[in-house]
Design a protein that fits this description.
It contains eleven helices and 15 strands. By secondary structure, the protein is α/β, with parallel strands linked by helices.
Length: about 350
C-alpha cells in the first residue's frame, strides 16, 4: 500500500495523469504537452486535435499528460504512457524530439509523432503546419492597422518555424504598407507570462501599435496589448474573446484531421514514417475570425489573398525578397528554395532584431 501511495505521489509531482490500462480492444493514443491543455494557445490547439481523434474514431482511447518540461521528465512521462498500453504517442513540444528519438529506438513497436521536428526514425514521424501562410495574411491586417508603421513581435526562441512567422508577418504587412517594420523581442521561453507582458510593454514604449507573437500561450500578450490600447494578432488558437476591440485576426492550428489520419493508418497497419505538412488549403492552418476594427475593404483583400494562396497563385516566399542587409535572397519571378525556408536563419528587410 505504501508503495502505491509513493508511486501516486511521484506521478502527481510530475503533473501526470494516473493512467488506466485500456481494454484489449482499444487503440490507446497518448499526448504529452509542455504546458496546460487550456492555455489558449499551442497546447490547447494540440488538445483540440486529441479531442477530435477521441470523438471521430470509435474504439480509440486517448490520454494526455500536461505541464511536462522539455527534459528527462518527458522520457519518464512517455515511458509511463507506454507502460499503460499506449501504442501511439504524440510528443507535441519542439524540445521533446531528442527524447522521442531515443524512446523510438527502445520501443520499436510504438509509433511516435513529433510536432515540427526535423528528424525522423522508422517508427517516428513528424507533423507540422505552414502557419506562415496565415501569418502573411495576418500581416496584411497589421499593415493596414498600424498608424506608426511599427509592428512588434514577441517570440520565444529564434528557431526556423518562429523566424518563418516573423518574416511572413513582415512581408504581409509590407505588401500593403511598404515602410512597415517588425521589431522582435525574444523571451527565451515558450511559457513565461511575465516576460511576455514585459516584452509587449517594451515594444509599446518604442512606438509599436500592433503586436504579434509566437509563444505557447498568447493570452498574456493579448491582455498586455489590451491594457496598452494597441492592436494584436493571435497565434495557435482563436483568442478573440480576450480583446474583441484590439483583436485583428490570428493564426489557428487545426491538428485533428492529421492526428486522426495517423491513428487510422496505425490501426490499419499501413503507417509509415513521413514528414506531414499541412497548410491553408488542407485546413491545417486557418485564419481566425476578424476583429471589429478590421474594415470591410481589408477583410475583402485578405480573403482574396487567402484564395490566391490556396490556388497557388500567391507564394509567401516569392521574390523579390531581400535580407536585413539588403542582400537579394530571391529575385523577382523566383521563390526561396524550400530547404532555405525549412532551415530559415535570416530576417527579411524591415525586420528589426537578431536571428540569434
Amino acid at each position: 500500500m505504501k508503495c502505491r501511495i509513493l508511486a501516486l505521489f511521484a506521478a502527481l509531482s510530475l503533473g501526470l495523469t494516473v493512467y488506466a490500462r485500456p481494454a484489449s480492444a482499444d487503440v490507446a493514443v497518448g499526448y504529452v504537452y509542455v504546458g496546460a491543455k487550456t492555455d489558449g494557445g499551442y497546447n490547447e490547439a494540440q488538445d483540440t486535435g486529441r479531442q477530435h481523434v477521441q470523438k471521430t474514431l470509435p474504439g480509440v482511447k486517448t490520454n494526455y499528460l500536461e505541464n511536462i518540461p522539455e527534459n528527462a521528465q518527458v522520457t519518464q512521462a512517455m515511458e509511463r504512457m507506454i507502460g499503460a498500453g499506449d501504442k501511439v504517442i504524440f510528443a507535441t513540444s519542439y524540445g521533446y524530439l531528442s527524447y522521442a528519438l531515443d524512446l523510438a529506438k527502445k520501443y520499436p513497436k510504438v509509433t511516435f509523432m513529433h510536432c515540427y521536428g526535423d528528424k525522423r526514425a522508422a517508427n517516428l514521424g513528424t507533423y507540422a503546419a505552414e502557419t506562415y501562410e496565415a501569418m502573411y495574411l495576418a500581416g496584411i491586417a497589421a499593415g493596414k492597422a498600424t498608424k506608426s508603421g511599427k509592428i512588434g513581435f514577441v517570440a520565444a526562441h529564434p528557431i526556423p518555424p518562429v523566424l518563418q512567422n516573423i518574416n511572413a508577418l513582415a512581408l504581409g504587412a509590407q505588401s500593403v504598407n511598404p515602410k512597415a517594420t517588425v521589431t522582435v523581442v525574444y523571451t527565451g521561453s515558450w511559457n513565461d507570462p511575465a516576460k511576455d507582458v514585459a516584452s509587449v510593454n517594451a515594444l509599446v514604449d518604442q512606438g509599436i501599435d500592433v503586436v504579434a507573437s509566437h509563444v505557447d500561450s498568447p493570452i498574456p500578450v493579448i491582455e498586455a496589448a489590451k491594457k496598452r490600447g494597441i492592436k494584436v494578432v493571435g497565434y495557435h488558437f482563436d483568442d478573440s474573446k480576450f480583446d474583441p476591440q484590439g483583436w485583428l485576426t490570428g493564426v489557428v492550428e487545426n491538428w485533428g484531421p492529421i492526428m486522426a489520419g495517423v491513428v487510422k493508418q496505425v490501426e490499419a497497419g499501413t503507417w509509415k514514417s513521413e514528414a506531414i505538412r499541412g497548410n491553408l488549403k488542407s485546413g491545417t492552418t486557418q485564419l481566425a475570425p476578424f476583429g471589429s476594427s478590421v474594415d470591410a475593404a481589408t477583410r475583402k483583400l485578405i480573403e482574396a489573398k487567402k484564395q490566391e494562396i490556396e490556388d497557388g497563385k500567391l507564394h509567401v516566399w516569392a521574390g523579390p525578397i531581400y535580407a536585413q542587409d539588403d542582400k537579394l535572397l530571391a529575385p523577382k519571378g523566383e521563390a526561396l528554395n524550400p530547404d532555405k525556408v525549412a532551415s530559415m536563419d535570416f530576417f527579411v528587410k524591415g525586420v528589426i532584431g537578431s536571428t540569434k
